[in-house]
Amino acid sequence: MILIPVFLSIILVYTVFAVYAERKISGFIQDRYGPMEVGPYGILQTIADLIKLLIKEDIVPKSADRKLFIAAPAIVFSAIFAGYAVLPFAPGLEASRASVGVFYLLAIISLDVIGLLMAGWGSNNKFSLYGAIRAVAQMISYEVPLSLSVLAVVMTCQSLDLQEISYQQSLWIKDFSKISDNNYLFGIQSSDINITEVGGFLTWNIFRNPILMVSFVVFFIASLAECNRAPFDIPEAESELVAGFHTEYTGFRFAILFLGEYAIMLLVSFLASILFLGSWNSPFPNIGFLRLADWTNGYPGTISGIAWGAFWLISKAFSLIGLQMVIRWTYPRLRVDQLMFLCWKVLTPLALVVILISGFWRLMMN
Amino acid sequence: MMTKSHIHKGAKSTYWGSISEGITSLLAGLLLTFKHLFQALRYKREPVGVENKDYFSFDKGIVTLQYPHEAIPVPDNGRYRLHNEIDDCIVCDLCAKICPVNCIEIDAIKSTEEIGKTSDGSTKRIYAGTFDIDMAKCCYCGLCTTVCPTECLTMTKTYDYSEFDVRNMVYHFTNLTPDQAEEKKKLYEEKQKEKSKPKSQETTKPSGTEDAKAEEKANIPKPAFKPVIKPPASTPESREDTNLKPEEMSGTIKSGETKPEEKKAAKPVFKPVIKAPTLNPKPEEESNVKPENKPATSESGEIKPEEKKALRPVFKPVIKPSVPKVSQSEEASNEQDRKQDATDEKKGSTDEPKSGEVKKPAKPIFKPVIKPKPKQEGEQGDQ
């Protein structure tokens, strides 16, 4: 229960500064400054924007379907926020250690689609409806490669429990994992190179099962589409659809939709970190007497364990968000047909092949 | 690189070709944006002018200049806001004559003796009763500065001086208050009289001044602007001081500092000019002065038509929508009435500036309310 306010405040603070970071990054990429006037280096710009947003008039269009229109932002945000329930925030610290965590998470963020469709349909606006239809088509399509890439991880770890997946990538695999006891280099047991005590990035899932690197790329691309972020932002393509499904939203409702978008960015980044990038574990391995992994990790359940765990998980998630932002300001938007081509003809077959290979790889692991 | 990507023209050839081309081009794109991202963190364009030899060497990093805080320096021969160093001005009127857009207005008051010397040694014999430059009209040709014999009129480097009210673009450079100008003028006229007549009028001075005042107003068309000048005349010195600052600071202009000062200096100078002095002093003067002075070129005459022009177009459209309700014949008569009203107003206001001006704001407000009703009421309301 204590994690609800923690995650909520993390999302709120993160959203404020993610918007700022996004504007700064886009500015730097385009050789300009970005916000500079409000506060030192414009750091308070988003807070000013937020205050402006909250004091705006709440307008519900006359011809809108009032119930759907009002309910949509709440559904979008709550569906995404519900996904945070199963995230292991640190060793021994999670809102719910559901043994079907990954499954639950993918299922619950799919509800997001219903919210978006309600928003687009309820607005009674052509732009909104187009945006919603595109969003639904895109998100449902990209859930296939997303789920398949996650499935490869689940096969490797033999668990749907996100905390279990995290423990398998940690130094304490012996004590806490219910499934595995040891980590071998690249997961090959026959190589007899036991790296359980080495830890660091070598025990991340993408190294325990190197084919998961491909899976990670698939997951990352699909998650961009899932977040409706550029280059997959055709649901809210500014140049075509004004703002897509949230064209008609103002003030607080718009803020909630916006919050939902940034929350799902954070959520998929957390998920990618947990599934592929070693969760809350430090990236530094123990090298001889340099016990980097020991120094930068805490024993599960202790305060240092929680602090280090939260630090590493948030750092990894934020790095991925930074990458998402750079990608947004680098690539042009895909056409609808290119979008579907990428999803069904490239990513889905690739994810299927990865599943096949990681199945064989699993046989080589213990 | 180029040839390779031409061979694998993926998007047009094969499935694998398009995928590999996609991957390579995506990576190239990411590299490019990352390069710019990191360059932007390290390098930044300096605010130097084109005359600097480093000007073309800033080819990476942030290109934005944060204008109010930093600006590219103005070249030495840049032509921006005019400034007249009134102490060096001999009021020769050359600048006003050569100005292609007539933006300089000078009211020269001859002096009886030498007033002083300019800094280059020229003798000053004429007071500038008015030295107004309307920077809204100025075309920045710089002709006035080239003809100026004492080089008191210069183009400064201040270019950021926009105003919300175009009337504030008129800069007053005289160092005489209207009272002083009046005094000098009287003095000169008296001297002229003395020259033409033997000295006999010395005793009648006190009564003579009032007559002179009245005469001036009746004869000279220009004094119309006199009340306009009053408040600003006391401040030009302070404004010049603030104006000088941005010029003196070469290189980056910290106009964040200078701007507010300029505005503070400018606003109080001009605001009272139009609102308070024209409206308030007038009734007093006019009640004192004989009625013959009023027509056409009276003090209020020049300013008021402007105000009227501003008012008219605003209110006319308000009235029209109500017209369709009335029948056509009524409409026609209404229109006539309206025209009459309009002309009446014009006459009234020009003839009796005081009453016309007081009524004006009230009338348009009532019109739209009353018009839809029977037209007699409307007429009553108008008159």
Description of the structure:
The complex is a heterodimer of chains A (366) and B (383). With 366 residues, chain A is mostly helical. Chain A has helices spanning 3-29, 45-54, 66-83, 101-122, 126-157, 162-168, 173-176, 205-208, 212-226, 238-241, 251-276, 292-295, 303-328, 336-364, and strands at residues 88-90, 93-94, 286-287, 290-291. In chain A, helix 3 packs antiparallel against helix 4 (101-122). Chain A has one domain. Chain A has a two-stranded antiparallel sheet with strand order 1-2. Helix content of chain A is 62%, strand content 2%. Chain B is rod-shaped and about 115 Å long. The N and C termini of chain B lie far apart (87 Å). The model of chain B is unreliable at 203-335 and 337-383 (pLDDT under 50). Chain B is mainly alpha-helical and 383 residues long. In chain B, the strands form three sheets. In chain B, strands 2-5-7 form a three-stranded antiparallel β-sheet. In chain B, helix 7 (226-234) runs antiparallel to helix 9 (255-274) and helix 13 (328-351) crosses helix 14 (353-359). Chain B has helices at residues 2-7, 15-42, 94-98, 143-147, 178-196, 205-219, 226-234, 236-248, 255-274, 276-279, 281-288, 304-319, 328-351, 353-359, 362-370, 375-382, and strands spanning 82-84, 104-110, 116-117, 123-124, 126-134, 153-155, 170-172. Classes of the chains: A mainly alpha (366), B mainly alpha (383). Chain A binds chain B through residues 25, 27-33, 36, 326-327, 329-331, 345-346, and chain B through 15, 19, 26, 29-30, 32-34, 36-37, 39-41, 60-64, 66.
- Record the strand order, biggest sheet of chain A: 1-2
Strand fraction of chain A equals under 5%
Nearest-angstrom radius of gyration of chain A?
21 Å
Rounded mean pLDDT score of chain A: 85
Low-confidence stretches of chain A: none
Order of strands in the sheet with the most strands of chain B? 2-5-7
Oligomer state equals heterodimer
| Secondary structural class of chain B | mainly alpha
Give a count of the beta strands of chain A, DSSP E runs of length 2 or more. 4
Helix content of chain A: 55-70%
Helix and strand succession of chain B? HHEHEEEEHEEHHHHHHHHHHHH
Classify the secondary structure makeup of chain A into a structural class. Answer: mainly alpha
- Helical proportion of chain B? 40-55%
